[in-house]
């Protein structure tokens, strides 16, 4: 009696452990099938952005490889790099504003000299 129960449990376990993933694999559509179900406008947009997305992913992987060469954790190096980029962006913005202010001052001086 106990062996029959164990055999039923084993068979049921195998059916669930093998049949479940097999069913999911059978039911899940491939990328090509999903893409073919898009409407034509989405297909066109997806094809246009594919190269951009691939370049973004390549840049991400390249940076990740570069950051992994450090002996620090990757997320620490990533945060430090992001802080550097923010600081660089702030500095560039300040430089741009100084240049715009200098140009405005030069224009103002030129206008004053032409009025005199």
Describe this structure as you would to a colleague.
It is found in: Mitochondrion inner membrane. It comes from Baudoinia panamericana (strain UAMH 10762) (Angels' share fungus). Essential for the assembly of ubiquinol-cytochrome c reductase. It has a direct effect on the correct occurrence of the Rieske protein, core 4, core 5 and apocytochrome b. With 116 residues, this protein is an all-alpha fold. The chain has a domain at 73-116. Helix content is 90%, strand content 0%. The longest helix is centred in the last third of the chain and has 42 residues, at 74-115. The termini are far apart. The model has no long low-confidence stretch (mean pLDDT 90).
Give unreliable regions as ranges.
none
Give the terminus-to-terminus CA distance. 115 Å
Radius of gyration from the alpha-carbon trace, in angstroms = 31 Å
Characterize the biggest β-sheet: none
Element order: H for helix, E for strand:
HHHH
Structural class: mainly alpha
| Coarse shape | elongated
**Average predicted local confidence, pLDDT:** 90
